[in-house]
Amino acid sequence: MRRLYFSSGYVMVADVTCKAVLRYARALANHGTADIVTIPVITEGGSQADAHLLLGPTSQLFSTPIEQSQDEPIDSAVIEELERLTRELQPSRPAWPQEMTDIPNLSDYDLDYLDAI
């Protein structure tokens, strides 16, 4: 689980969701465009909810790990859609294994299994 910081606060998201959001934000910035995405988060009270983030060329996002975090809110459809949108904007992108090495690669997750949890 990670805190994903934005302009005036943060949301708590699954590692894999955070990685997908950051990749998509970079792709949008490289193209000088923006989008609104909806991602699963954990609220301050500990329940699951959806957050809507405006991502664009001036988005200043960063993340930090949360130690001893609870179950991560993972929605494989959201992650797959963010990755699809990223591929559309960056069809020939660099290899991801060299990025954010403290978070497993998306291919390391069994997203179908995680949906069943």
Question: How do the strands and helices of this protein lay out in sequence?
Answer:
Elements: E1 2-6, E2 9-13, H1 15-31, E3 35-42, E4 48-55, E5 62-65, H2 76-89, H3 111-116
Antiparallel strand pairs: 1-2, 1-5, 3-4
Walk me through the structure.
The structure is a single chain. By secondary structure, the protein is of the alpha+beta class. Helices cover 32% and strands 26% of the residues. It has helices spanning 15-31, 76-89, 111-116, and strands at residues 2-6, 9-13, 35-42, 48-55, 62-65. It has a three-stranded antiparallel β-sheet. The protein has a two-stranded antiparallel sheet with strand order 3-4. It starts with a strand and ends with a helix.
Kindly summarize this structure in a few lines.
This protein is an alpha+beta fold. 32% of the residues lie in helices and 26% in strands.
